[in-house]
Write a structure and sequence with these properties.
The chain is 68% helix and 13% strand. The chain is an alpha+beta fold.
Length: 349
């Protein structure tokens, strides 16, 4: 923001030069055709006064850049600009007369014209001053606005990451506590299975910690994570847990929030496998359509079983994560039909 916007790049310099060349052409035309001055006088007047103004106007930036309204106040700033404009006009007109006299002796007729044109020259000098100062202030406002947007975006990102981390910190212990309860039950009834479950749980935790820094992973990685989770639950439920997946190769490279499927599987196991006395089939299907990954998780539900009451923390956290990441609330659809529980995810790519 400290760099003069006119001198910041060649494009701006070219635009600035072209603007003043246009002003000079208009200036010379008015003096020659309206005031009937000789063409060489008109061109010389335009070149001297407009070029000197253009050169001096570049310096406005350095005063404006350090005139902070919040520090000196609005009225003090206006007073400073009025004083600066008066001083600038005096320097500009004085230097113009000096340059004209230096380049060639002034004709008495032209000197008389300069005196007559002085009020008008002061007027358009003040007009140019106000326009250039306004452009500088608009540039400062534009840069400040962009920086504000960047800061807000960074802050929103930090807030979102914090919320996502909070959700994960709540979700991971939720599963781990359930697993530890299962291990505790198996310790007496089947110590070998308890030991196997501890080993797989430790692998699960290492995997979860490894993925903690990556919000999005490939669906292939998520499937690995899913199978690791199911291997733990398989120790607990044995043949009662019957899992099948139909995931075409084309879907494996799609991006998906990490550890997103596991809470849905946990919900399917809790409400499908836990109370059932017969094997419960859980299927996971995936396909890509219009650059959107679709996942469908289906599990059988025993109509004779009393539904398990839970906190719904897993489903709720999945919905909240999808809302935070994609800004949509309808990416998870859940329904029950024909003794089957169905959860459908749509993940934009």
């Amino acid at each position: 923001m400290n760099n003069n916007p006119i001198l910041s790049n060649q494009r701006n310099i070219n635009i600035y030069a072209l603007a003043w060349m246009t002003i000079m052409a208009f200036h010379a035309s008015i003096f020659h055709f309206y005031y009937k001055l000789p063409l060489d006088w008109s061109i010389g007047d335009a070149i001297v006064f407009d070029c000197s103004f253009a050169f001096l106007a570049i310096g406005f930036w350095f005063a404006i850049r350090y005139m902070n309204i919040e520090q000196i106040g609005l009225w003090n700033q206006i007073t400073c600009h009025v004083a600066a404009a008066v001083i600038f006009i005096l320097i500009w007109i004085g230097s113009g007369y000096f340059l004209l006299d230096l380049l060639a002796p002034l004709d008495p007729v032209y000197v008389t014209f300069l005196q007559i044109a002085l009020p008008g020259r002061i007027f358009y000098g003040l007009l140019y001053y106000c326009v250039i100062v306004l452009i500088y202030y608009l540039h400062i406002y534009y840069l400040s606005y962009n920086q504000k947007l960047i800061r807000e975006a960074e802050l929103n990102t930090l807030v979102k990451e914090s919320e996502l981390s909070l959700l994960k910190s709540q979700l991971n212990p939720h599963f781990i506590f359930n697993s530890l309860n299962s291990i505790s039950s198996l310790t007496l009834s089947n110590p070998s299975l308890a030991q196997e479950m501890i080993i797989k749980l430790s692998s699960y935790i290492r995997y979860a910690l490894k993925q903690e820094k990556n919000e999005l992973v490939t669906f292939s990685e998520e499937l690995d994570y899913t199978r690791l989770y199911l291997s733990i639950e398989k120790v607990r439920f044995g043949d009662k847990l019957d899992f099948h997946s139909t995931c075409p190769v084309a879907t494996l490279s799609a991006k998906i929030p990490n550890m997103l499927v596991q809470p849905l599987l946990e919900n399917a196991i809790k409400h499908g496998v836990y109370e059932s006395v017969s094997p419960v089939k859980i299927t996971l299907e995936s396909y890509l359509d219009n650059n959107v990954l679709h996942l469908k998780l289906t599990n059988d539900v025993d109509p004779d079983c009393i539904p398990q009451k839970g906190t719904g923390i897993g489903i709720r956290h999945v919905q909240e994560r999808l809302q935070l990441i994609y800004g949509k609330r309808d990416l998870l659809q859940i329904r029950k039909e024909n003794h089957r529980f169905i959860a459908e995810l749509t993940i934009p790519q």
